Amino acid sequence: MTPALSDNLKMRIVSWYFDEHLTYLEIRDRAQCSTGLISKVMSNYRTHGQVTNLFSKRTGRPLKVQDGDIEYISSLLEANPVLYLDEIQHRLLSTRGVKLSMSSLSRLLIQYGLTRKHIQKAAAERDEDLRTIWEADMAQYTDPDVFVALDESAVDNRTLQREYGLSLVGSPCVRRATFLRGVRYSILPALTTEGIIALDIFEGSVTKERFLAFIHDQVVCSFLHSIINQRNLTIFSAHSSTHTPKSGALSFSTIAAFITTRSFGG
User: Alpha carbon of 84 to those of 76, 87, 113, 146, 266: distances in Å?
Assistant: First the structure.
């Protein structure tokens, strides 16, 4: 079922027609709807002075859900967007007393523009206040040449395995692949505007001790010693803006402040 157009979009259709003098075809491409629907909106506006017809009545079986039920579903998904249909169905019945089939609930979600998407994960440890303070502190550095960006990556036997394939309708897409992770290799580069100035590739995962040793032995001692007296450098890690430093954990902001305020000539 095609989602219903909002009243706001209908008003914009009227504005595009009268103010911007667009044709129905041009409005169709911009609003992503049919010309018949555009014609209906314009007819309602000319007849009733608004984009909807207050005298029209809904046809078919009456809906079991009311506006309050829709708002309840929206609040549920806003708080926990990974709920399954059966979980939404159970909460509707237990909280609102509304019994809907799985198919009806699925169509209802599609009708109101709620679609299934890949989840974008945000770190639960993120502290927005510390993140804002960090961003304000980094704003003092306006020269991109003073930054050294650090981030780790890893690869194993399953990294290059493809997750999607093609097969006939009704047939599973099967490909033989190893289920074992195998040996894990990590890569730890240091990147500046001049390119990669330090690189460490090793077996295993990046740990706090390995990361600190990489900064001291390669980034600082080997590369920055000759230029530390010419300019201050800031070490920037992908984790520094998303992770909150805790007791016993690695503080990347502390590393940045240390390198920018201390001299490594000794």
Answer: 11, 5, 16, 48, 60
**Overall domain count for the chain:** 3
pLDDT digits (tens, 9 = 90+) for 47-86: 888 888 877 766 666 667 888 888 899 899 988 988 999 9
Confirm if 51 and 44 have CB atoms less than 8 A apart: yes
| Half-sphere CA count of 219, side-chain side, radius 13 A | 28
Q: Which domain holds residue 21?
A: 7-48
Q: Classify 202 as helix, strand or coil.
A: strand
Are 43 and 87 in the same domain?
no
Q: Of 188 and 167, which is predicted with more confidence? A: 188
138 in the same domain as 100: no
Same domain, 151 and 98: no
